[in-house]
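**Discrete fold encoding**
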Amino acid sequence: MDALEAIRTRRAVKHYDADFIIPEEDEAILKEVIRHSPTSFNIQNWRILIIKDKDLRAEIRKAAWNQAQVSEASLLFLLCADLHAWDNDPVRYWADAPKEVQDILVPAIKPFYSHQKWQQRDEAMRSIGIGSQSLMIAAKAMGYDSCPMIGFDSIKVAELVNMPENFVIGMMVTVGKALSPSKPKGGFIDDAEVFYEDR
């Protein structure tokens, strides 16, 4: 399936074949596509937990208002970001770039984020959002289904996974084989309310 078709047909799937296991090579591709998602200054601030332990998933399901997809989907991704990635040896983000590029970009990273906590969090959410969309489009293109989730107690989930203090949770994404075809989209608001030109 091409990318446009994957975008148009992707739906939030809530019920999966709990016996289906995504092959390791496909899981590796899903991880790779997230890594190809853009991040500002290439800081690669996403930190992604792939939760496979059944007992842990059962506990997370409790913290997610007992939503079935948490334990039934083949894969459960918890997409987080490191709020301090910008300050963690930023030279490494441009290690393979030409020196003239390094000399411009590396010194610009810290001043952009250092005194702006809101910018650090906004950047985290942007990166998580882009990475999540890459994951879901790739999953659909590969014949799988997915569901982005914010319906859970993020404080409880952070405790369950021993999340570091400087990490923030953006969302969970489940990936697997749907039990039945997804329902049609709910509808679109008018283009005039969405798209504007110039001002």
